Amino acid sequence: MNADDIRAMIQPGQVHRDVYISDAVYRLEMRHLFTNAWVFVGHDSQTPNKGDYITTQVGDQPVIMVRHSDGEVKVLYNRCPHKGTKIAIDRAGNTGKFFRCPYHAWSFKTDGCLLAIPLKKGYEGTGLSESQNGKGMQAVGAVHNYRGFVFARLAEEGIGFDEFFGGSLSSIDNMVDRAPEGRVEISGPPLRYMHKCNWKMLVENQTDTCHPMVAHESSAGTAVKIYEQMGNPEPRPPAMQIIAPFMSPYEFFEDMGIRTWPNGHGHTGVNMSIHSNYDAIPGYFEAMVESYGEERAKAILDENRHNTVYFPNIMIKAPLTQLRNFIPLGADRTLVESYVYRLVGAPEQLTAMSAMYNRMINAPTSIVGHDDLEMYERAQEGLHAEGMQWVDIRRLHTGTEDFETEAVENGTTERQMRNQFHAWAKFMTMSMEDAPGVAAQ
């Protein structure tokens, strides 16, 4: 496939099924898309001390995020430059002052620089010291820490962080500003949940507002009916505050609004969202007023964005301080990690509410998440059916669309899905342009 083949898969209002089911397309995503885009790695509170590290992946590339001796967070490829052995296999730990390869004991500083090699005299005059392997562990192309959230670009050169994210960073700002002390911290390990579907299905679903009242009728709908039969007792328990809004009518989601930004980012919940009417947590607003003043505190908390998609593969939910990372493992395999963050200086009841939401909606044991999972897996299987090659995303498509500008539209539009695929084609072909018509491997 070449750049023209990739662009041909994305048409106004429809995309070719191969973007979801083709192994060849998946391999190209790993080589190009996840190399050229800025991709979430982790939160710096996961590595608070020097030598602390986590292991994860960017696309299909194994990486280590580590706190260096200078206090900065580094992102290194998880590979020894000697024989290619993975340096770290634990999900998290503390390596002390250096990494040591378990195969031949080559050691490296926590910024990746080569520290020592046993029997180093055996390499004298061989050219190792002048080679890339002799420099140490390779760092990724670029790293940016934005208010604690660490992103990486694998490519050595490419689009800058600020240009890539632009105005979409306002959702991270709102999430962090909800902490009276202006920072958030990780609250335990994430919930992990395997999905037998393409990663883009999960990303698209985050801003699909025409499915909740249908797909979740068996779960949220049943809960609402039972609560009504009980007489809708007050005060509403947190579980009902969380699940009942999923059954809101189409008109509610239309009025919510959707905002899109360039490069595939966007969010639902411009005017209000399913998170707008949770009960107040005692002492929280007072703590916010003390930190920000009443006017600013009210402005922060009145912003109730639903789901913000950061292209290519994460979603944050600012009112509940959550992040979901959709990690591609194959054309039909995605590992979902769902994180909860603690608002520093806020009542712990807020963290408990967020953790409850995560268990009810995002966990392998969720009563709501399984509705979505069934739809994803049915779609992954159904797309192999012959007779129709294209997937429709033309809801409220009105003709020519400019995805290089910010836009706010009806909350049930599929513009954000179209926006994501516009960005998909852009970053997929960015590194193919030098050799148009030449088959990629």
TrEMBL record:
Protein name: Rieske 2Fe-2S domain-containing protein
Sequence ranges assigned to domain Rieske in this UniProt record: 38-118
Similarity comment: Belongs to the bacterial ring-hydroxylating dioxygenase alpha subunit family.
Pfam families: Rieske (PF00355), Ring_hydroxyl_A (PF00848)
Keyword terms, alphabetized: 2Fe-2S, Iron, Iron-sulfur, Metal-binding, Oxidoreductase
Keyword Chloroplast: no
A GO molecular-function descriptor: iron ion binding
InterPro entries: Rieske_2Fe-2S, Rieske_2Fe-2S_sf, Ring_hydroxy_dOase_asu_C_dom, Rng_hydr_dOase-A
This protein's record includes keyword Amino-acid biosynthesis: no
